[in-house]
């Protein structure tokens, strides 16, 4: 397959993670980059042997660029996706897809009309433990799932300063839910289907000097009848990434950032490790993106799937602001309401 020539739009930490992964046999070739900082884009261009372009508009005007990898501030995603589609560029955009359902619909429709591939970076459903858990669920190993619970948190709060865009409430509504917890929302929906109602609490527990909150706790109701809980924070002492499913026939624990899985069947006092095949979820999603561009296929997490996640995010933000349980917008169902 001829490599798909892409430009990195945003050259920060995650932009470099994607660029490193792209070089591991994904079928993507980084040919250009852009950033608001001339120094940062020059350093990135040197590190990845690509050209530094002065603006996003210059990227879209470059005939050598077939697609873009967008890792810019959350509030820019929608308009950048729309502009890329108008220029005929394929789009891989990091989560969160957008910050509102309206913007998500607009970006999705722009890509559909332009017939360009749109993929959204929800790689955690591709972790070895997540794939194995999905097989267990499909095979009925867990029985009826009564509850799902998890926590996805980081230590980034201890390094945040007021000049960072992530500290702006407009960029991170719902606190750490926006850039951390949204991953688990996607994985929860991947496991159990549509989320129909949420109750959320957002607090500032430890941060000072910035306007954002640092801890979010959410309760979920699923269309299937299952219940769930998610905790997410920027101020855990250590990175936390776990998911537990409690079923009538078995319970399962995804730990070590999706690299380990444990199962305990009903009546078994101890849980047992489940053998997993190691995988790189980021390489996997980028490889799929390249293949979809060349073959005209649809990615696993495209605009519609990502929009459903944003519908849940919108409901979480509203609940945290009003103190009430909030129904998820119809886009979050993925199926007709019963």
Can you give keywords for this protein?
338 residues, globular, alpha/beta, Dihydrodipicolinate Reductase, domain 2, six-stranded parallel β-sheet, disordered C terminus, 2 domains, 25% strand
Protein described:
The chain contains nine helices and 15 strands. It has helices spanning 13-22, 38-48, 56-61, 77-86, 101-114, 128-139, 181-192, 281-295, 303-322, and strands at 4-9, 28-34, 51-52, 67-70, 90-94, 118-121, 145-153, 195-203, 215-222, 227-233, 240-247, 250-255, 260-265, 272-273, 326-327. Helix 4 (77-86) runs parallel beside helix 5, helix 6 runs parallel beside helix 7 and helix 7 (181-192) crosses helix 9 (303-322). The radius of gyration is 20 Å and the shape is globular.
Can you lay out the helices and strands and say which pair or pack?
Blueprint: E1 4-9, H1 13-22, E2 28-34, H2 38-48, E3 51-52, H3 56-61, E4 67-70, H4 77-86, E5 90-94, H5 101-114, E6 118-121, H6 128-139, E7 145-153, H7 181-192, E8 195-203, E9 215-222, E10 227-233, E11 240-247, E12 250-255, E13 260-265, E14 272-273, H8 281-295, H9 303-322, E15 326-327
Parallel strand pairs: 1-2, 1-4, 2-3, 4-5, 5-6, 7-10
Antiparallel strand pairs: 7-11, 8-9, 8-15, 9-10, 11-12, 12-13, 13-14
